[in-house]
């Protein structure tokens, strides 16, 4: 039967409907619904519409209308986002992502010129300005088992800072290389080398003290003899070790009080 525009008030029953001429696309009615087939049946064809309102979509991939547009595949472990005609990973843009974990080689801001974090085998590296230069990590508190650094300073660049050279630790002041001051309640060291030492209170020497300049040490008696131009004596005090003349001051490691 041939008709230009047939009308059926009660409907039509048919296993499939096909176009005319070269438009051999076919609509095939299955027990589950409808299959759209291209002219080379039974290969699946394409359905076009301005809008589709469905409860769910089961598909192998979703893609934009152009060949260079992004596309999404749905493997067994989740989904992959690509762009272009190859399997090049693409960008997901969202206001917020709520996930249990993120596996990535790096993380950064949307502006490529900002700081970014790289996740390498030994840990995480913070970079700045979109390049490979090391950046700054700012936090209220850091709880770590160890810290490897070239220097440590205050957030204000004009404060003192500590440098870690090969032979130990250097304390500097301000923003230059001048020596700074260490303040502590107690210092326990095996060796002390200094250019100038000043003691505000009493100096107690246990076991004696050796001077390599302007003095000598009596190790057996634990007594220091200072014969420099400026006597190290203190008026009004006596020492149990010995008496000295006006040019010599003596300290005993047990009495620790100078005499004239």
Automatic annotation (TrEMBL):
<feature type="compositionally biased region" description="Polar residues">
    <location>
        <begin position="224"/>
        <end position="260"/>
    </location>
</feature>
<feature type="region of interest" description="Disordered">
    <location>
        <begin position="218"/>
        <end position="260"/>
    </location>
</feature>
<protein>
    <submittedName>
        <fullName>Uncharacterized protein</fullName>
    </submittedName>
</protein>
<feature type="region of interest" description="Disordered">
    <location>
        <begin position="1"/>
        <end position="23"/>
    </location>
</feature>
